[in-house]
Write a structure and sequence with these properties.
- This protein has helices spanning 5-21, 26-33, 37-49, 65-87, 92-102, 108-126; strands at 53-55, 61-63.
- It has 128 residues and is mostly helical.
- The protein folds into two domains: 5-69, Orthogonal Bundle (Arc Repressor Mutant, subunit A), CATH 1.10.10.10; 76-126, Diphtheria Toxin Repressor, domain 2 (Orthogonal Bundle), CATH 1.10.60.10.
- Helix 2 crosses helix 3.
- The longest helix has 23 residues, at 65-87.
- 20% of the residues are buried.
- The model has no long low-confidence stretch (mean pLDDT 90).
């Protein structure tokens, strides 16, 4: 099943908030992403219907294994790309913004090559 960029962003945000807060509600996502509560409610309904999240009777949101897999993959891409751009001399804010823009569209092949290059680049920099 193809998942849209916005859904990936929601799942990534849920993962990050869960790590930061322990428990996540729709209002937390709305605050973090600067979206309205109704927009988040619609998105959470779609994610729940597609099997990416579960919502308990108290309104706490958890990722299903499928949702966690997608969120972890996107978060990993974001982190690797941000760190790589920073290692190239890009300021952290710009690096994070650029990583967010391309993390969804980058092919697996290109991402793998960036990871290998980044590892080699960092190793070379660390070994005088």
């Amino acid at each position: 099943m193809e998942i849209h960029e916005s859904a990936e962003d929601y799942l990534e945000t849920i993962l990050i908030l869960n790590e930061r807060l322990g428990q996540v509600r729709s209002i937390d996502i709305a605050t973090e992403m600067n979206y309205t509560k109704p927009s988040i409610s619609v998105a959470m309904k779609k994610l729940r219907e597609n099997g990416y999240i579960q919502v308990d009777h108290d309104g706490f949101i958890t990722l299903t294994p499928a949702g966690r897999e997608i969120a972890a993959s996107i978060y990993n891409r974001h982190t690797v790309l941000t760190n790589f751009f920073v290692s190239l001399g890009v300021n952290e804010k710009t690096a994070a913004e650029d990583a967010c823009r391309i993390e969804h569209d980058l092919s697996e092949e290109t991402f793998d090559k960036i990871m290998k290059h980044a590892a080699a680049f960092i190793n070379d920099k660390g070994n005088p």
